[in-house]
Task: structure prediction
Amino acid sequence: SLESVPFITQQVRAHGKRAGVVTTKPFTDATPAAFGTQDDYRDDEAAISDSMIRNGNLDVIITPGHPEFGGSSQTLSAANLAALRGGLDGWTFVDDYAALGAIGSGAQA
Result:
């Protein structure tokens, strides 16, 4: 029987810190996903994506693969994209350079 072990982002958040993933690969790829979720099936990108944005282990995800810009539709479902745009669980969805820059400079929260 395998026992689940808290991963680094869970440990960091347990100490009141914030955690995130910044990647040049889709955030559901094995390495970035390992910081946000635990899933037995690496090919189930939709479940991994859903878990990463809904399980509360991450505060920031910066990744390529926007489904409307030619990215993989398996990475982020249309329902999750709409939910993120609507402020799902406090997430701020950014998909343009100016808004990202405003957040980075502190001009926008």
Q: What stands out?
A: The longest strand covers residues 20-22. Residues 28 and 45 are 6 Å apart (CA to CA). Strands lie at 20-22, 60-62.
